[in-house]
Design brief:
alpha/beta; 4-stranded mixed beta sheet
Length: 203
């Protein structure tokens, strides 16, 4: 598996709410985005193979695609693709500090493909999103084998509660305990789904 950093203006703009402002940002930044793409790729290539293999070992599931793409954006900070192979990340970061959130977005896509094994649970889109986000936080921040890819992060960044999804905070606290006691990732998902089904706001 490989992650390839690319520029895809159309894909990025299709998800923008303010098209005119987005176009202006591209005009101002595109030549710098091209340069940043090289730096991001070089940094990611240092961990690429180990990252994909480690995630497979943790989750017990193979990645769906051989190649994943990361669109560098002057508009969005981070957007996953629910089961697809293309994510979006901001170009305005350090080539090393960008790694964790990039990994997070990739994991959300991966976890959505894992949900295909849980069709009988009839998970709503919001339930899938909530569980994928929290699972990605757990894998990137609570697994020692993953922390070696971003060893500089502070303790509060490992399993963060300073993100914009305030509605996840309560469930995130509950599921951390379940994650740390899990025997396997599939078991964690099963137990988490039982808890999630009792929470009305995610239906």
């Amino acid at each position: 598996m490989r992650l390839k950093f690319i520029i895809d203006k159309k894909y990025d703009l299709d998800l923008a709410t303010e098209k005119k402002e987005a176009e202006e940002r591209y005009k101002r930044a595109v030549k710098f985005i091209r340069k940043t793409k090289i730096f991001y790729q070089k940094s990611w290539d240092e961990i690429n193979n180990d990252f994909f293999k480690t995630v497979e070992k943790i989750t017990g599931y193979s990645w769906k695609y051989k190649t994943y793409f990361c669109v560098l954006s002057p508009i969005h900070k981070g957007i996953s693709n629910w089961g697809g192979n293309k994510i979006i990340r901001s170009w305005r970061e350090n080539p090393y500090t960008m790694r964790k959130i990039t990994g997070h977005e990739l994991l959300i896509s991966h976890i959505f493909t894992i949900f295909e094994d849980f069709k009988k649970e009839n998970l709503s889109a919001k339930e899938k999103w909530a569980l994928a986000e929290i699972s990605a936080f757990a894998i990137t921040g609570l697994e020692k084998s993953m922390l070696r890819f971003w060893p500089w992060i502070d303790e509060e960044e490992k399993y963060p509660f300073n993100h914009r999804y305030h509605e996840l905070y309560g469930l995130q606290k509950i599921l951390r305990k379940r994650y740390e006691k899990k025997k396997g990732f599939k078991e964690f998902l099963r137990n988490s789904i039982r808890i999630l089904k009792k929470i009305k706001k995610f239906k």
